[in-house]
Amino acid sequence: METRSIFIAVILSITSYIKAEDYKAPRLKTLATIEQECAGYLLLSNETLRSYIAASFPKDSTVQKLVHCFLVNMNAWDDETGIKDYVIRNYFKPSDTDSSYESRTQCCLRDKVSNLDRCAVFERAYHSFMCYYQNYGNLVPEAQFIPWYQVDREKNLREVFLIEGITRAQLLKFQKNEERTPKEYPILYYMDVIRNAFYDPSTGHDLGRLYTQYGIQELLADETRQCLDTVSRNFFEEPTRAYQGYDQCLRKYLTVYVEKLLQTVVAQVLESNIVC
């Protein structure tokens, strides 16, 4: 994917339209790109990678290490807790007539993964991937959204504070949490969800990407979409529309994650003394 510098101009008096280039070109990767990147990291030739793919990823130590890289690269794996279903499933499309793909996959994970040693991370990752590869559905060739690691979310929010010119006094107010909704929150939220590709001013919140980030099933519920649609009909200007979507429809699912991120970054910035 072409890399380019992205600059967002935020004008508080004119918020009816912003080119959301962050939304259009976020962390999107095809499985083919992930495979190529990992082969490069591990110094494997294109010929070797093609042979592994043609043989449906035979079980050996090099392939296990390679597959572990695939899952880490797409942020679908945690060495402690294992496979992230809500991420890896984006790369497979079940047949319309297949009603048992999920049960087959989960049965495979129980049989092939659950009894493996916790420290055998390459073997656990390999068998986890193969359970999806062999049971969940056909591979999806299109690029999929890669969820952010926590360190990236923190970096993005620190930069939002700098862009908006948040002062030390304001950060201390956030830290004390004296107000449910400080007046600065809507614009900070708006910048943050755009920078993280969770929001497009023309279409609103992307619930698919939010689900891929957090794995909360309720984000995909019809009730959540209907709530956001109602907010969009009642609020026309940004950042109010974006923030009200969060406040009225998403807060009950995401508040723990959002507040933890906010307090973590506030403490980091205060400790660094980079703001006055």
From TrEMBL:
It comes from the Eukaryota. One of its GO terms (cellular component) is extracellular space. Its main location: secreted. CDD domains: PBP_GOBP. It is found in: Secreted. GO terms for biological process: sensory perception of smell. Pfam families: PBP_GOBP. The keyword Disulfide bond applies. Keywords: Disulfide bond, Secreted, Signal. GO terms for molecular function: odorant binding. Belongs to the PBP/GOBP family. This is Uncharacterized protein. It comes from Aedes aegypti.
